[in-house]
Specification:
The complex is a heterotrimer. Chain A is α/β, with parallel strands linked by helices. In chain A, about 35% of the residues lie in helices and about 10% in strands. By secondary structure, chain C is of the alpha/beta class. The model of chain C has no long low-confidence stretch (mean pLDDT about 95). Classes of the chains: A alpha/beta, B alpha+beta, C alpha/beta.
Chain lengths: ~500, ~130, ~425
């Protein structure tokens, strides 16, 4: 029975362009205190546009209603559990939003004089130091804008170090369980990708790895714990194999929520990793971004970090642009500063012991779900799991119900789906990551929903296959969307 | 009765080849279209493109998957099926007929010998399952 | 801890269900060698009150109560109150990428509106759901042009933002894409078409120009495009000052537009987060990076939106993807969407007009170095005085002056880049002008 939700009216709403009517406004500019100029004469009439055709014209009250109505069509963490594996959808503390909007921080221009930006620089320095301590690394750059951008930065750093040693090499090794960003990144960084198989225990195949690490291998890109939620227990040995051949170890830190205060990549052989501040450190996903993807490195890679670097000049912070071996900058300015404020606020709130408790609870929650659901869903890799657990739809598939259908049915029970069909090494994967910020009550409701759905699959698979039933929008026709793309509104 | 024409040759990459003198017509098999599901886009080479056997000819996309199309033989692309640009769904409806992908001028007839017969292909996809 | 919602009693119940005595036991499989055997060297957690105090103290160490004339890619524009009202809603703030269309129609609809408005502003057919920010959007646009043209060389104007050019170099290098620069005219401050022509060849994939350019000058896009197209290269048009789109005619000659939307109600915030965009012609959409939202119908026949053409992206095409981008800047793009809605068809033009008037007022009291037509930024020489001395004097009046250009352009060491927006007041502009006297 569905207990968490019951139907609720949600308003229809037209697009802005359909709401628009000529002459409506939602703005008022202050009176101009200088002479007006004729755009045609100062810009040249050929450069001046007559109109912004189709642009909306709506009033203030209609604007707020429009976006409020749209918002009601979204699910969000604030509504309930969001168990997307590898995404760490945890509670986003609201004080972080408040402090990120303090005028002196929010209105700081990146080119304002350094002596008038000391507060911002101190925030960055403190965050760098905290992330270095959490990861056990020697230096951190905050510049990358998101995880994939961090990956690119990290691989470029590795490339630069190897180039300096005389040969950038050709290949990056990537386990078959990796996030799609890993191979995409390797190629953008000028490398070819060689996949590494996982063992039946869901870990990297050390013997196979040993056989393929040759002088062409620049690095291994590993996720630890991996996307099965399994800790790579041979990681120290894996790192030794790479290092013995002059190659490096890059870690995708997407799953750092499983390790804080427990184990540090810097202590188990990792040379560089990125963190996703919008995962582990609670900054909001905002419907797809912004994130931030700081990269932490060992000493050997530090000279290559992007410019500028923070430098202590007496009692002040200064930007250092003169770094001979730097790979250059990976974006304009210094990074997603507003995200840094939120992440540092999160770290301050928890403190060292608190971050460890985050990991303890995150892993407890995932194990609790596993324990309660393993009688109902196939568990392809029985190794101990950390912060997430991956089931497969093998049993339900026999009734013609696939992971995507189970996920859609979960919506009717009032939950956002888990991650569907990933990692690729598990056919029909259900990848579940509860994070530490779910109460026992919410977890129990989720578990009950999953068990109820498993029962429905036996009795009434069609109901599950056609889900969701309770949403204002039913399954969208993605095939037509892709065959005949309509990517913007046009007037009829 | 089999849906795989006996006069076609097949590849392990789930393509079919119809030989007509020096010209071959190439498409994807019914099995391939079933595996992909609703096909939404077909990317084909320009005519005049020369490819080696096993080289990439183009790709076929569903909503959530992309499958490369490999050249079953070496040669030059002499014609592409323009209709698929606006109607990729034909690949789901008639993969062995109307929805052929490209025609090529064969450069080495011997390469055809490496391809599978209809019976061999069916045994192959049977075993794959 | 206030963000952990379990009581110790509940924890014990859960541990019991898991068949372990303590949470520590859940880690017993970790090899001894990887374990951290000491507490993290970070102070204990603090209260909400202390967090606010900490950041207020940091903010106090920054500029407070200053008027700024800095532009150079980051602009001080008024932020309508509705912007934060909308993005503070948990339904937008705390949702994930809208992969599950049935429960993400709010985000999807807003992105579709965003894509539409970006097309209306830029004159392009299709725009993506956002890139990280302007400089990476420009670099990704260059890689896109290389894929479209199957050529391997990129030319970029020196009048493009210097930091954007640096990023382009970093992206291009590992792919062995040569990037060369062409100059600007010493008198007009606009691109030097002759220099461009002399550097063109038929292996050039893209010519990159910015308008208004880094010096604030409305760039000679048409001239550059005529040359680029003659050699079969694409034209990438970059913008950093989005408010200019309210008044400048969109280019009919650009093949790809890559830009930065910071001006649309996105706080300067010491450099980010901002939102970049890429917009292009229909025929290049499959080579475009980034997420796209498309319109379709649901099984009941109602209009619905969903992410589409995802086969370009890394989670499907992996090493053959058009980009490795995954997380983008959705919430920031939503800020821009609300901003565009609030100002709308008339307001954006009026806002641009005020910027134009303010900058031209300030320029009328100084001598612009370049004779090219400019929007809300211009370069001026500091004459006999050092730029630093002028700025120091202005700081005493709580005014942050223009950006000294010597760091980026040695030949402009005696010049600063000044920006005036609708927030610049006449008295402050007069004070700036006086400091130059």
């Amino acid at each position: 029975m569905i207990t968490k939700v019951r139907p609720h009216l949600s308003p229809n709403e037209r697009l802005l362009f359909e709401r628009s009517s000529p002459g409506k406004v939602a703005y008022q500019l202050p009176k101009l205190d200088v002479p007006a100029v004729d755009p045609g004469s100062v810009l040249g009439s050929e450069n001046v546009r007559a109109d912004i055709e189709g642009f909306p014209e709506v009033s203030e009250v209609e604007t707020i209603r429009h976006f409020t109505r749209l918002s009601l069509w979204n699910y969000a963490i604030d509504h309930g559990m969001y168990p997307l594996g590898s995404c760490s959808m945890k509670y986003n503390p609201r004080v972080n939003e408040l402090v990120a909007r303090i005028d002196g921080l929010a209105w700081a221009h990146p080119y304002q004089p350094e002596r008038l930006a000391q507060g911002s620089m101190e925030v960055m320095a403190r965050l760098e130091a905290a992330l270095a301590e959490i990861t056990g690394m020697d230096a951190v750059t905050l510049q990358p804008a998101a995880g994939a951008h961090g990956e690119l930065t990290g691989i470029l750093l590795i490339r630069a170090l190897l180039e300096k040693r005389g040969n950038p090499r050709k290949k990056i090794l990537i386990p078959d369980s990796a996030h799609g960003t890993n191979p995409a990144t390797a190629v953008i960084a000028g490398y070819t990708v060689e996949p590494v198989r996982s063992t039946s225990a869901g870990m990297l195949d050390v013997a196979a790895l040993e056989g393929i690490v040759d002088p062409d291998v620049a690095a291994l890109m590993i996720t630890n714990p991996n996307t099965l939620g399994v800790f790579e227990e041979n990681i120290v040995c894996v790192a030794e194999i790479l290092h013995a051949k002059g190659a490096l170890v890059y870690m995708d830190g997407a799953n750092m929520n499983a390790l804080m205060g427990i184990a540090r990549p810097g202590d188990f052989g990792v040379d560089a990793l990125h963190l996703n501040l919008h995962k582990t450190f609670s900054t909001p996903h905002g419907g797809g971004g912004p994130g931030a993807g700081p990269v932490a490195v060992k000493k050997a890679l530090e000279p290559f970090l992007p410019v500028p670097r923070l430098r202590r000049a007496g009692k002040k912070w200064a930007w250092d642009y003169q770094r001979k071996y730097s790979i250059g900058r990976v974006r304009a300015f210094y990074g997603n500063f507003g995200v840094f404020v939120r992440a540092l606020a999160y770290i301050l709130a928890h403190g060292g012991p608190g971050l460890r408790n985050v990991t303890l609870d995150a892993v407890l929650n995932a194990n609790y779900i596993r324990k309660k659901l393993e009688a109902y869903f196939d568990l392809p890799y029985p190794a101990p799991n950390m912060h997430e657990v991956v089931f497969s739809d093998e049993r339900q598939a026999q009734k013609g119900v696939r992971t995507g259908d189970l996920a859609k049915r979960l919506i009717d029970y009032g939950f956002h789906p888990y991650t569907v069909s990933f990692p690729l090494i598990v056919p029909g994967a259900l990848m579940i990551e509860p994070t530490e910020t779910e109460s026992k009550h919410e977890l129990d409701q989720f578990i009950d929903a999953m068990i109820a759905i498993a029962g429905e699959v036996e009795r009434d698979p069609e109901t599950v296959r056609a889900a969701p039933h309770g949403t204002r929008t039913s399954r969208a026709d993605e095939v037509t969307a892709a065959r005949k793309p309509v990517l913007r509104w046009k007037s009829a | 009765m089999s849906i795989y024409p006996k006069n076609f040759r097949y590849t392990r990459e789930h393509e079919w080849v119809r030989v007509d003198g020096n010209t071959v017509t190439i498409g994807i098999t019914d099995h391939a279209q079933q595996e992909l599901g609703d096909i939404v886009f077909v990317d084909l080479p320009k005519t005049g493109t020369r490819v080696e056997q096993g080289g990439t000819l183009g790709s076929v996309e569903s909503v959530k998957a992309v499958s490369d199309v490999y050249a079953p033989v070496s040669g030059e692309v002499i014609e592409i099926n323009q209709a698929l640009a606006t109607a990729p769904e034909k690949l789901n409806a008639d993969p062995h007929g109307e929805a052929w992908l490209v025609k090529m001028r064969l450069s080495a007839t011997k390469e055809l010998e490496r391809l599978l017969s209809a019976a061999d292909y069916q045994a192959y996809i049977g075993a794959e399952k | 801890m206030r963000y952990l919602p379990k009581s110790d009693f509940e924890r014990r119940e859960m541990l019991e269900a898991c068949g372990v005595a303590s949470s520590e036991d859940l880690f017993s499989h970790l090899p001894e060698a990887v374990r951290l055997k000491r507490p993290l060297d970070l102070p204990p957690g603090v209260s909400e009150y202390e967090i606010i105090q900490y950041f207020r103290d940091r903010a106090a160490e920054n500029a407070n109560g200053y008027t700024s004339f800095l532009g150079a890619g980051v602009y001080s524009h008024f932020r309508p109150v509705l912007v934060d009202t909308v993005v503070a809603r948990g339904e937008f703030l705390t949702s994930y990428t809208p992969y599950q269309a049935e429960i993400s129609q709010g985000t999807l609809t807003a992105i579709f509106e965003f894509q539409t408005m970006i097309c209306q502003l830029t004159g392009m057919d299709v725009a993506n759901a956002s890139m990280y920010e302007g400089s990476t959007a420009m670099a990704e646009a260059a890689l896109m042009a290389v894929r479209v043209t199957r050529k391997g060389r990129v030319l970029v104007a020196r009048s493009v933002h210097p930091e954007y050019r640096e990023v382009l170099g970093v992206y291009a290098k590992p792919q062995r894409i040569p990037v060369e620069e062409f100059g600007y005219l010493a008198d007009a401050g606009a691109l030097d078409a002759e220099d461009l022509e002399s550097k063109m060849d038929d292996q050039t994939a893209a010519v990159i120009v910015q308008s208004p350019n880094f010096f604030g000058i409305v760039e000679r896009v048409k001239e550059a495009a005529e040359i680029a197209h003659r050699y079969g290269a694409l034209v990438i048009l970059v913008f950093t000052e989005a408010v200019s789109l309210g008044i400048l005619e969109p280019s009919a000659d650009a093949d790809i537009v890559a830009g930065e939307l910071q001006s649309f109600a996105i706080s300067p915030c010491y450099g980010g987060p901002y939102a970049g965009i890429i917009a292009t012609r229909d025929k290049y959409v499959r080579q475009m990076p980034g997420r796209l939202v498309g319109q379709t119908t649901d099984t009941r026949g109602n209009r619905a939106f969903c992410l589409t053409l995802a086969t370009r992206e890394q989670h499907i095409r992996r090493e053959k993807a058009t980009s490795n981008i995954c997380t983008n800047q959705a919430l920031i793009a939503l800020m821009a969407t609300v901003f565009m809605t609030v100002y709308g068809r008339r307001g954006l033009r009026e806002l641009a007009g005020q910027n134009l008037a303010k900058a031209h007022y300030l320029a009328s009291r100084l001598k612009p170095r370049f004779c090219g037509k400019f929007f809300n930024e211009f370069v001026t020489s500091t004459g006999d005085k050092a730029a630093e001395a002028i700025n120091k004097a202005l700081l005493r009046k709580k005014i942050i002056g223009g950006l000294p250009l010597g760091r980026f352009y040695p030949e402009l060491a005696d010049s600063v880049l000044l920006c005036a927006t609708e927030m610049s007041e006449r008295a402050d502009m007069d004070a700036v002008a006086e400091a130059f006297q």
